[in-house]
Amino acid sequence: RALHGMNIAMMALHAPISKKVASLLVCTWYNDVHVIDAAKTIECGNPVCVTTGLVFFFLYTLGIPVYVWLTLYYTLSPWAREKYKGSPMMARFKARHGFFCGKYEIDFWYYELLQITQRTLLIAVASFIQRGSYAQLFAKLLISGGFFVYLVRSAPFNSEKMDLLVTTNHFCTLATLWFALMMKIGFFEEEGVPEDVMSRMLMAIMFLPLLVALYIISGALYEACFVSCVNACVKGSRTGYRAAKKVSAFADRYGIMTSL
Questions:
Q1: DSSP strands (E only) in 49-206
Q2: Which of 149, 202, 210, 196 is nearest to 180 (CA)?
Q3: What is the mean pLDDT of residues 145-154?
Q4: Regarding predicted confidence, which is higher, 222 or 183?
Q5: How far is the C-alpha of 90 from the C-alpha of 93, rounded, in Å?
Q6: End-to-end alpha carbon distance in the chain
Q7: pTM of the model
Q8: CB count, 10 Å around CB of 188?
């Protein structure tokens, strides 16, 4: 349990800690002084901050994905499953590391690493490329578009509903980036699109994953409650019918109904 909790915490904190580490290496201008992004009181190029940032970048930002890949390859990859087939070690591996790939198909045991890679690349783009520039938007579009295409082609999740939710989320992220690019180049202004229409479009894009999630949750509740109740009623009626037949046969055999 401790190892399982450590894996969850490690995955949840990887993105924010990596972003903080990147801020130690990124410089910005503040009151005409070149300072690091993490602290406006430290000048850019401070050897302590640069060294700390590089050490944590290689040990944590890059080290965690390498650790996850090695762990999954030697425990839950198709090669490992074949090697430990029928061994009690496989059940132990699933209990310890199933958090990483339990929601994916067996052949896509590595997909969580792709998720980490995407987040890390987006953090790097947001940190090291000029904010709000065309280069940053194009880089985000390229990264998000590439991973979206792979997601659609592979469908790695072992649940169709999870595939639908994640695909919708990635599509909305990509659509938001396209929307930002169109706004930056003045496309909507040239076409005369009102601002309230653009705001409604953006809100619709942002709320679409939430609506899909509500649809999936309502479907799950429907199956869990209504369908289960119907199945229980059908099963109970069949059991009652069989019991009634047995009672009727018993009564006919001993002439109980005739004597009455």
A1: none
A2: 202
A3: 90
A4: 183
A5: 5
A6: 66
A7: 0.73
A8: 16
For 122-139, letters b (16+ CB in 10 Å) and e give bbbbebebeeeeeebbeb
Of 102, 101, 122, nearest to 112 by C-alpha is 101
Q: Which of 137-141, 172-176, 245-249 has the lowest mean pLDDT?
A: 245-249
User: What distance in Å separates the CA atoms of residue 14 and residue 232, rounded to the nearest whole number?
Assistant: 45
What is the reported pLDDT for 150?
A: 92
Residue pair 61/18 in contact by the 8 Å Cβ criterion: yes
pLDDT confidence tier of residue 227, bands split at 50, 70 and 90:
low
Q: Which of 34, 61, 56, 58 is nearest to 45 (CA)?
A: 34
- On whether the CB atoms of residues 137 and 184 are closer than 8 A, the answer is yes
As to burial, measured by CB atoms within 10 angstroms (0-12 exposed, 13-18 middle, 19+ buried), residue 218 is exposed
d(C-alpha 148, C-alpha 33), whole Å: 40
Longest CA pairwise span in the chain (Å): 109
109 closest CA partner among 74, 84, 140: 74
Distance CA 50, CA 42 (A): 11
pLDDT score of 79 more than 80:
yes
In order of 9, 126, 134, 180, 200, the CA distances from 184 in angstroms are: 37, 17, 8, 6, 18
Determine the Cα–Cα distance for residues 119 and 112; give it in Å rounded to an integer: 11
